[in-house]
Amino acid sequence: MNKGIIVAGFAVLVLAGGGLFIASQNQQAEQVKEGEAVMEKTDDKMLKSNSSRYVEYSKAVLDQSKDKRRVLYFYATWCPECKIANEDFTANPDKIPEDVVVIRTNYNDPNTDAEEKNLAKKYGITYQHTFVQIDSQGKEVTKWNGGGTDELVKNIK
Fold first, then answer.
1. Strand 100-106, strand 69-75: pairing
2. What's the predicted TM-score (pTM) here?
3. Closest by alpha carbon to 95, among 104, 82, 85?
4. Which long-range contacts (CB under 8 A, 24 or more apart) does 46-50 make?
5. CA 1 to chain centre
6. Digits of tens for pLDDT over the chain (157 positions)?
7. Which residues form the Thioredoxin domain (predicted)?
8. What is the dihedral of CA 42, 48, 51, 54, to 10 degrees?
9. 39 CB neighbour count, 10 Å cutoff
10. CA distance 9 to 1
């Protein structure tokens, strides 16, 4: 009988712990969604119909923005500096020059896809929070590490 009580008590603890874990994961997911709400979700029509200067990477966005000064921002979800810069770009899109598009490109995190990995390899990215300005042919113009909108304006060519 004591064994049954111990097993039942343990089961209650496991269920309660599991419930708390799931609740905390849902809360973290909601916080990420709220923090990312300003980020423009991209598709083939995004740049044609939206003047956003800070967008998520997609091949379509990269192709559609050839007439602008393009900056690939290699971002990692786990990087504290990246989160600060992300907040800066989303809060201050008007500080980004009108002829510039900053393309947030996932780097070395669970959201990184094969295209993004290939871009990181192509431009020799070894560190998250790296910016690479590219020309209309995809050739590197300049590269720098760190910063937000102020550094973008200082470094862009």
1. parallel
2. 0.68
3. 85
4. 47/101
5. 55
6. 577 777 776 767 667 665 555 655 555 444 444 444 344 444 443 433 345 899 999 999 999 999 999 999 999 999 999 999 999 999 999 999 999 999 999 998 888 889 999 999 999 999 999 999 999 999 999 999 999 999 999 999 9
7. 23-157
8. 30
9. 15
10. 12
- Angle of helix 2-36 relative to helix 80-91, nearest 10 degrees, comes to 40
Q: Give the whole-angstrom CA distance, residue 86 versus residue 142.
A: 20
In angstroms, the CA 147 to CA 84 distance is 9
Token representation of residue 37: 């709400």
CB 51 within 8 A of CB 65: no
| Structure token pair of residue 62 | 């990269």
Token readout for 15 is 């269920």
Name the class of domain 46-155: alpha beta
Please report, in angstroms and rounded to a whole number, the separation of the first and last CA atoms in the chain: 77
d(CA 49, CA 7) in angstroms, rounded, equals 61
Rounded Cα distance between 154 and 142, Å, is 12
And the tokens for 2?
């004591």
Contact 57, 103 (CB under 8 A): yes
